[in-house]
Write a structure and sequence with these properties.
Blueprint lengths: L1 E4 L14 H9 L3 E5 L10 H6 L3 E3 L2 H7 L2 E3 L6 H4 L7 E4 L7 H9 L3 E4 L14 H18 L21 E5 L3 H12 L3 E6 L2 H10 L5 E4 L2 H10 L2 E4 L14 H4 L7 E4 L20 E4 L2 E4 L9 H22 L1 H7 L1 H4 L2 E4 L2 E2 L2 H7 L11
Length: about 375
């Protein structure tokens, strides 16, 4: 198979779809790998590293997209890339289609097989390709939160660790999944007072046991949420419904309960966000203010640490990429239900039910097409 790895185009997105080590594995499997010149520079990979790994460098993204039977990326295509897609091509990347009907239509119109990292499953029903970036984003949420709580960045001027004689800041995490757990770990390690709101009693027991009662767990309901909002210095939105738009849990009206200069980091922004006032931002312009509350809503947070993120991502995407390249997407999907679950669009159809429901559009079961 011919595999293309283009340079990412999103604002300050410096990750690349595959490390040189991953390229070597694909090359040794007998595939032709084409890498856009400069694609890895932001992650610290020189062009000649890819060449030594067996890749052929191409000068432009147009050449990559025209050559590749499968395109391996990090983030979803943006408008300049739409015209490069072609029928029958497999696109293997994060797609997060639910809140972006425009991209969904482009994938349908170009009859691209869109295989979404975030909906591929494992034997336990987990989301193995989402986990490493969720880990990165969860930890970053506390780091950027600590930064933007500084007065110079418009925050309350709170040091979340506190100092002797001064209490620590209050960090409230909505959701105790992968993002939430990583945010809790870092916030707790920085000596913040941490509260997590969660719907699962089993998950709350787990968090309580792991942190030996040092983290407050609350059943996620309106009363508990509003009380937590009132005391939060930093609020982290960390909820996920696989493939679907994130549930809107904090309304604009409830925002008025928060302190002036408090900070929201909505990690769920790439699925539409769980705060009513969320809108996607970029690393170049990451924050905005609504009713005195600062919002950080960067949709590709791990892009700020591209070297760490690219290694972590390739660790989990490479086995699936090798299978798809070896067998072709149709046979790979027939043989492996986990890959089947990753196919969001196929031959002009939406084949992931949660995406169709989120957009109010027609869903086609993949079994009708394969």
């Amino acid at each position: 198979m011919k595999i293309g790895i283009p340079k990412e185009l999103k604002d300050q997105e410096s990750r690349v779809g595959m490390t040189p080590a991953g390229v070597r594995s694909l090359s040794e499997d007998g595939h032709e790998v084409f890498v856009e010149a400069g694609a890895g520079l932001g992650s610290g990979f020189e062009n000649d590293e890819f060449e030594r790994a067996g890749a052929r460098l191409l000068a432009t993204a147009d050449e990559i997209w025209a050559t590749g039977d499968m395109i391996i990326k990090v983030k979803e295509p943006i408008e300049p890339e739409y015209g490069r897609m072609r029928a029958g091509q497999t696109l293997f990347t994060y797609l997060h289609l639910a809140p972006v009907p425009g991209l969904t239509r482009e994938l349908q119109e170009h009859k691209v097989t869109g295989v979404a990292y975030e909906t591929i499953t494992d034997a336990r029903g987990g989301l193995p390709l989402l986990v490493p970036m969720s880990e990165v984003a969860g930890r970053m949420s506390v780091l950027v939160g600590a930064t933007y709580l500084q007065r110079a960045h418009g925050g309350r001027g709170v040091l979340i660790s506190g100092v002797p004689g001064v209490p620590p800041g209050d960090v409230v995490v909505i959701g105790g999944g992968i993002v939430g757990m990583n945010a809790i770990q870092l916030a707790h390690g920085m000596r913040a007072r941490v509260t997590v709101l969660e719907t699962s009693a089993e998950r709350m027991r787990y968090i309580d046991e792991v942190f030996h009662g040092a983290v407050t767990t609350l059943a996620s309901n309106r009363l508990n949420l509003e009380a937590a909002l009132a005391r939060a210095d930093l609020l982290i939105g960390a909820v996920l419904i696989p493939g679907a738009s994130a549930p809107m849990l904090v309304t604009r009206e409830q925002l008025k309960l928060m302190k002036t200069g408090a900070l929201i980091v909505d990690v769920a922004v790439d699925q539409g966000g769980c705060i009513e006032t969320t809108r996607p931002t970029t690393h170049s312009d990451p924050v905005f203010e609504v009713d005195g509350v600062v919002h950080y809503c960067v949709a590709n947070m791990p892009g700020a640490v591209p070297r760490t993120s690219t290694f972590a991502l390739t660790n989990v995407t490479l086995p699936f990429a090798r299978t798809i390249a070896r067998d072709g997407i149709e046979q790979a999907a027939r043989d492996d239900r986990n890959i089947w679950n990753g196919i969001n669009t196929y031959d002009g159809h939406i084949t992931y039910e949660a995406v169709a429901e989120s957009q109010g559009r027609a869903y086609t079961d993949l079994s009708e097409l394969l």
